[in-house]
Specification:
mainly alpha
């Protein structure tokens, strides 16, 4: 009887072992997956270790990098800047024109002469010189401050514009509240200009322009010229009982030559006879009618001027903020 024996195969040292795991089993982890997990874990651990080592030693680390904010001018900032420069240039030219007119008036009247220097403080042209100088310096400060981005000049400009706006608003309020007394002040001013008509070239120019353009004579009527010492009926000169040539209806002789003697003796005439020679109506009524006819235009111009000043104030404030932010984040 043949005997069957089970012989167990004994592995030899040089034989190859099959260590391949069965990947179909869900309970046995995959070798490749474990290796990848170990590599990722090692990478994360290395980053955390490096971050902990550099923390407090290197603030510019790629892990804890500080973000520096950045500010730059916008297109609107550039537009407002050049708009402010343009407005200031226009008002600077206007100020120079007013200043030039005032200086021309002072030089033409020889107000700087030794015999007239004592009365220069009451010269109306001095108002034009002061106004032109202040306007020019103020607008130049705003223009240079905007171009050079100088905060000191811009603050000075904005403060001056704010004071100017406040003064204009207060003047408008006072004029409205004292409108019943404005007529009295105007009458006093016209009478003072008539009394000094021959002695002050500026007042003569103002009265001539008013009388010729409004076709009027005197304050209330043509007999008011008696207040002037040269046109008074008791005066010894040829102008006695007369009126200036700008009171005449037709001051041109033969339509070409200015007749400065056309108003001689006009105060001695009755109204019926005088109306063919001179204007009978006073200038106070003419000024009142002119203001009433053009009050809409006057109000519009005042509002536009005030609005431009307020707009320039806001633009200057915005530009100051932009300059300060830009300097902080440079």
């Amino acid at each position: 009887m043949r005997r069957y024996m089970v012989i167990k195969r004994i592995p030899l040292p040089w034989s190859r072992r099959d260590n391949t795991q069965n990947e179909s089993s869900p309970l046995i982890p995959k070798a490749g997956s474990a290796k990848r997990d170990a590599e990722e874990l090692g990478h994360v651990t290395t980053e955390i270790h490096q971050a902990g080592t550099n923390n407090g030693l290197d603030d510019d680390s790629h892990v804890f990098r500080r973000v520096q904010p950045h500010y730059s001018y916008s297109l609107m900032d550039y537009f407002l800047k050049f708009f402010l420069v343009l407005c200031n240039l226009v008002f600077t030219v206007l100020g120079l024109v007013v200043l030039g007119l005032g200086m021309w008036g002072l030089i033409n009247k020889e107000s700087f002469a030794q015999e007239k220097i004592g009365t220069i403080g009451t010269d109306p042209m001095l108002i034009l010189v002061t106004l032109g100088f202040v306007l020019t310096m103020l607008c130049l400060s705003g223009c240079v401050g905007a171009l050079r981005e100088n905060c000191c000049l811009l603050k000075l400009f904005s403060a001056a514009v704010l004071v100017l706006i406040t003064a204009q608003v207060l003047a408008a309020i006072m004029t409205y509240s004292l409108q019943d007394q404005v007529g009295g002040y105007l009458r006093s001013g016209v009478l003072a200009a008539m009394a000094r008509y021959q002695d002050d070239l500026d007042l003569r120019f103002i009265m001539d322009e008013i009388q010729s353009n409004l076709q009027c004579c005197g304050a209330d009527n043509y007999r008011d010229w008696e207040i002037n010492i040269y046109y008074n009926c008791s005066a010894p000169g040829v102008l006695a009982c007369g009126v200036p040539a700008t009171c005449c209806v037709d001051p041109l002789e033969n339509g070409t030559v200015w007749n400065s003697q056309c108003g001689v003796g006009a105060q001695l005439l009755d109204e019926f006879t005088a109306q063919s020679v001179i204007f009978l109506g006073g200038c106070l009524g003419g000024i009142t009618r002119w203001v009433e006819q053009h009050e809409g235009l006057i109000g519009t111009v005042c509002i536009i001027i005030l609005g431009v000043q307020i707009l320039m104030l806001f633009i200057t404030t915005r530009l100051l903020e932009s300059i300060q932010w830009h300097k902080v984040y440079i």
